[in-house]
């Protein structure tokens, strides 16, 4: 079975581990979000791609859910001693090696897809990992400017998330460069040729949303013969992980499983979804989701451990098969 997954970082990676446990013989292609990418200290950092790579390659920090296991922070401490900014985003010593290799290859003229393939070879990933685009796309968040009351400014998503912890209101989400970006090599083929396309419980605005926003990708998702199944990132009124509720508010979408399903929309009505999994605690929303033209099922969605996550992944694939019939 050929499965294609449009994934963000930690939530997407966790789901992918369950999918691999549930379907170990499947041929899985992951299209990763790159709009969180940032250049720091002269190095190109791709947080979501690296989280998928480290998680599935066995190098992720189990405690943090991002970065390397057994990490040290000597370089970060030395940079701070020199007073180098930003101090709010630290790169671990092991992690820096990845960014050095990536930056050297990009500077030598290789595209991000080729660079990602080279990096993944070291980790012997059981999936094919593709960036959404070789082109530079960066998410910025419009917030109030504390230094100039009554005005707003756009800051990089990483500053919003890492430095500010998403604790200030987000007024607008901007994907800089997205309108000129093209899908990376292999992305459109992976969408067109798969047996099922899955949207895991990644952020629907700044992860899956930015992937779909690359010109040509949403159209490919709408046109694929494969069923498109999503897993709700919202349980009750809160995100499974991260701050999806904060950025949903910025675009005027209620933080509920049903509202996110309607935000994605049904393929029959111009959206991207055929099926949608919600948590059993949200079962009362099934009827309204079905009314929007989306096949919905309620199953336990908390990804507390690998068996529970594998059960979620199995439910997504089974729903895809049901929708196909």
From TrEMBL:
<dbReference type="InterPro" id="IPR002882">
    <property type="entry name" value="CofD"/>
</dbReference>
<keyword id="KW-0808">Transferase</keyword>
<dbReference type="GO" id="GO:0043743">
    <property type="term" value="F:LPPG:FO 2-phospho-L-lactate transferase activity"/>
</dbReference>
<dbReference type="Pfam" id="PF01933">
    <property type="entry name" value="CofD"/>
</dbReference>
<dbReference type="InterPro" id="IPR038136">
    <property type="entry name" value="CofD-like_dom_sf"/>
</dbReference>
<dbReference type="InterPro" id="IPR010115">
    <property type="entry name" value="FbiA/CofD"/>
</dbReference>
<keyword id="KW-0460">Magnesium</keyword>
<protein>
    <submittedName>
        <fullName>LPPG:FO 2-phospho-L-lactate transferase</fullName>
    </submittedName>
</protein>
<dbReference type="GO" id="GO:0000287">
    <property type="term" value="F:magnesium ion binding"/>
</dbReference>
């Amino acid at each position: 079975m050929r499965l294609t997954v449009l994934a963000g970082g930690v939530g997407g990676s966790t789901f992918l581990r369950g999918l691999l446990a549930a379907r170990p013989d499947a041929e899985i292609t992951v299209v990763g979000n790159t709009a969180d990418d940032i250049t720091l200290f002269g190095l190109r950092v791709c947080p979501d791609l690296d989280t998928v790579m480290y998680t599935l390659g066995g190098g992720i920090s189990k405690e943090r859910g991002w970065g390397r296991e057994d990490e040290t922070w000597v370089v970060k401490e030395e940079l701070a001693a020199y007073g180098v900014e930003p101090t709010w985003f630290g790169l671990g010593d092991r992690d820096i090696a990845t960014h050095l290799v990536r930056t050297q290859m990009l500077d030598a003229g290789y595209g991000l897809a080729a660079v990602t393939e080279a990096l993944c070879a070291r980790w012997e990933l059981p999936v094919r990992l593709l960036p959404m685009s070789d082109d530079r796309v960066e998410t910025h968040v419009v917030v109030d400017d504390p230094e100039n009351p009554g005005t707003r400014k756009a800051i990089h998503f990483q500053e919003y998330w890492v430095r500010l912890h998403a604790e200030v209101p987000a007024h607008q989400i901007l994907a800089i460069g997205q309108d000129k970006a093209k899908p990376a090599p292999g992305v459109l083929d992976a969408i067109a040729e798969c047996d099922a396309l899955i949207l895991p419980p990644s952020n629907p605005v700044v992860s899956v949303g930015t992937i779909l926003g690359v010109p040509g990708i949403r159209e490919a998702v709408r046109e694929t013969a494969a069923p498109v199944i999503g897993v709700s990132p919202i349980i009750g009124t809160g995100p499974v992980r991260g701050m999806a509720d904060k950025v949903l508010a910025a675009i005027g979408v209620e933080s509920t499983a049903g509202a996110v399903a309607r935000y994605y929309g049904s393929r029959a009505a111009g959206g991207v979804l055929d099926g949608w999994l919600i948590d059993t605690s949200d079962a009362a929303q099934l009827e309204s989701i079905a009314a929007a033209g989306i096949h919905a099922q309620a199953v336990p969605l908390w990804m507390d451990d690998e068996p529970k996550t594998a059960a979620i992944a199995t439910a997504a694939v089974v729903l895809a098969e049901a929708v196909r019939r």
